[in-house]
């Protein structure tokens, strides 16, 4: 059997991250297509990745074994309703939109559609992504494996037992890279205030983030224990951690993530 064709509708940030990662992992450019209404965006992807692009979403719907819906949530209904009901036989549709439920997608695309809802993240571009996946009952085992092979090509993926968990995944890992970038920005600025040149503060911060994440991923003890091992009694780290705790760091993070998850649920209602 020949390799499946994968079509991305919406060729923006997230599609670029996924396609970039897939091409580094044995997916052939000749089997990937992308459509976008922006000619600049189409040209950019065609140049960057050597994939076929189109201005016509219908062309992808008719030709591709897998359709990845990668437009903004607010544009999803119009995109789905404009797709033809006669699409490629056995097609799997993967939606990566935050807050668009399988129920809405089923209504817009046709109830028999095999649908996977997925929440990836932008480090997929570096093949360091993590995705949560939820399959509707129309999805067969082969299609599940196909979805997994796409997302595993750009990082790791985890199946969810309930669709509602997607909002939590969005709050943790979908939006998560932005929280770490925010911390990097804040630590770099604080390093500068402490007298370091900006570039030095930035490199120290970036490599500390990379080292800490790598160490935590490969450790057999949890993050709290790793933190304790850095914090010598009466030393410097303890002072920083105590100051963070006094200022409510865990509560600040929990409130922010609750806001992200609530927005996901709100979008599902608003855009149904
Ligand atoms: N960015 C992220 O980190 C993540 C995003 N997501 C989800 O991925 C989806 C895409 O997000 P993102 O990549 O950031 O968004 P972008 O705006 O970067 O990409 C969407 C692209 O789709 C194009 N588009 C809009 N309408 C149509 C249409 N009718 N036909 C074809 N193309 C169209 C847009 O063009 P134009 O701009 O001209 O309208 C744009 O180029 C969202 O639903 C988001 O929830 C999920 C996980 C992480
Ligand atoms: O901010 C957003 O809505 C999207 C979903 C997760 C990351 N970006």
TrEMBL record:
Entries under InterPro entries matching the protein: 6-PGluconate_DH-like_C_sf, NAD(P)-bd_dom_sf, P5C_Rdtase_cat_N, P5CR_dimer, Pyrroline-COOH_reductase
Pfam families xrefs: F420_oxidored, P5CR_dimer
Taxonomy, superkingdom: Bacteria
Domain Pyrroline-5-carboxylate reductase dimerisation: 163-267
Residue ranges of every copy of the Pyrroline-5-carboxylate reductase catalytic N-terminal domain listed in the record: 5-99
GO CC terms of this entry: cytoplasm
Keyword Iron in annotation: no
GO molecular function: pyrroline-5-carboxylate reductase activity
Keywords, in A-Z order: Amino-acid biosynthesis, Cytoplasm, NADP, Oxidoreductase, Proline biosynthesis
Main location: cytoplasm
Intracellular or extracellular location(s): Cytoplasm
Enzyme Commission number(s): 1.5.1.2
Residues that, per the record, bind NADPH: 57
Record GO biological process: L-proline biosynthetic process
Pathway: Amino-acid biosynthesis; L-proline biosynthesis; L-proline from L-glutamate 5-semialdehyde: step 1/1
Keyword flag Cytoplasm: yes
Positions annotated to bind NADP(+): 9-14, 70-73
Catalytic activity: L-proline + NADP(+) = (S)-1-pyrroline-5-carboxylate + NADPH + 2 H(+); L-proline + NAD(+) = (S)-1-pyrroline-5-carboxylate + NADH + 2 H(+)
Family to which this protein belongs: Belongs to the pyrroline-5-carboxylate reductase family.
Task of the protein: Catalyzes the reduction of 1-pyrroline-5-carboxylate (PCA) to L-proline.
NCBIfam families the record matches: proC
PANTHER family per UniProt: PYRROLINE-5-CARBOXYLATE REDUCTASE, PYRROLINE-5-CARBOXYLATE REDUCTASE 3
Record protein name field: Pyrroline-5-carboxylate reductase
Source species taxonomy: Bacteria, Pseudomonadati, Pseudomonadota, Gammaproteobacteria, Pseudomonadales
